[in-house]
UniProtKB/TrEMBL annotation:
Enzyme class: transferase
Record flagged with keyword Nucleotide-binding: yes
Thymidylate kinase-like domain boundaries: 5-184
UniProt EC number: 2.7.4.9
Annotated gene: tmk
Family membership noted in the UniProt record: Belongs to the thymidylate kinase family.
Gene Ontology cellular component list: cytoplasm
CDD domains per record: TMPK
GO molecular function: ATP binding; dTMP kinase activity
Protein name from the UniProt record: Probable thymidylate kinase
Length: 197
C-alpha cells in the first residue's frame, strides 16, 4: 500500500513522517526529492532562482521515475507499506504553479504535468494532505527559497484544492494549523483506518 504525505512547505509533513517511524517500524519510509544524484540535481534547481521551469519539472520527474522503479515498486511488489513524504501531487501542485507564472505557453499546466505522469507513474492508494494557509506555511518554512514565498504557496494551495476536488476519495485532509502533537495524533488515527481497510 502506498500512502503519501502532501502539503505546503512548512505544513509539518516531515515532522509527521518522522513520528510515524515508531508506529510502523516495518514500513518503508521514503521521500521526494530523493537523496539520489537525480535528487541532488533537483536540489540545485530549487536553489537556483533562474532555473528553467520546464527543465526543473523534468528533473523532478526524472527523480520520481527513478524513485518509483528503484525504491517504491519493489517494496510494493513485496507487499510492503510505503509512506512517502511528497510524491507526484507535489509536481502537479508546485510545478503547475511555476509554469503558470512563467513565459512557457502551456494552457493547462496541471493537466499537462498529470499527463506526463500518467504514462508511467503509480498513483498513491491514499494521500494525507496537511492543510495550512500559505502565509503560515511560508513563515514556518523560513522563506529561504523561491518556493517558500506567500504568493507562490497560495497558488500551490489552490492547485492542491483542485487535486482534492478531482479525487476526493483519495485525499484525507488534516488541519495542520493545530499543535504538532494534535496533527500527529490525527494522522496516526487516519493511517490506522487506512491500513486496516
Ligand atoms: N503543527 C505544527 N505547529 C507548529 N509548528 C510546526 C508544526 N509542525 C511542524 N512545525 C515546525 O514547522 C517547521 C517545518 O516543519 P516540517 O519540516 O515538518 O514541515 P514540512 O512540511 O516537511 O516542510 P518542507 O516541505 O519545507 O520540508 C519546523 O520548524 C517544525 O518544527
Ligand atoms: C517533490 C517535489 C518537491 N518540490 C519542492 C517542494 C519543496 O519546496 C522542495 C523540497 O521539498 P521538501 O519537502 O522541503 O524537502 O521541493 C516541488 O516543487 N515539486 C516536487 O515534485
Amino acid at each position: 500500500m502506498l500512502i503519501t504525505l502532501e502539503g505546503l512547505d512548512g505544513s509539518g509533513k516531515t515532522t509527521v513522517w518522522e513520528a510515524l517511524h515508531d508506529v510502523y517500524p516495518d514500513a518503508m519510509f521514503t521521500r521526494e526529492p530523493t537523496d539520489s544524484w537525480y535528487g541532488e540535481a533537483v536540489d540545485r534547481s530549487i536553489a537556483a532562482d533562474d532555473a528553467d521551469p520546464l527543465a526543473e519539472l523534468f528533473l523532478l520527474t526524472a527523480d520520481h521515475a527513478d524513485h518509483l522503479s528503484g525504491t517504491i515498486a519493489p517494496a510494493l511488489a513485496d507487499g510492503g507499506l510505503v509512506i512517502s513524504d511528497r510524491y507526484s501531487d507535489s509536481r502537479f501542485a508546485y510545478q503547475a504553479a511555476t509554469l503558470a507564472a512563467s513565459d512557457v505557453e502551456i494552457d493547462r499546466p496541471l493537466e499537462y504535468i498529470k499527463g506526463i505522469h500518467a504514462a508511467f507513474s503509480r498513483p498513491p492508494d491514499a494521500t494525507i494532505y496537511l492543510d495550512l494557509g500559505a502565509r503560515e506555511a511560508a513563515e514556518r518554512a523560513g522563506r529561504t527559497n523561491k518556493f517558500e514565498q506567500d504568493g507562490y504557496l497560495a497558488a500551490v494551495r489552490e492547485n492542491y484544492e483542485r487535486l482534492i476536488d478531482a479525487e476526493p476519495d483519495r485525499f484525507v485532509r488534516v488541519d495542520a494549523s493545530r499543535s504538532p502533537e494534535a496533527v500527529i495524533a490525527r494522522v496516526e488515527e487516519v493511517l490506522a483506518e487506512l491500513v486496516d481497510e
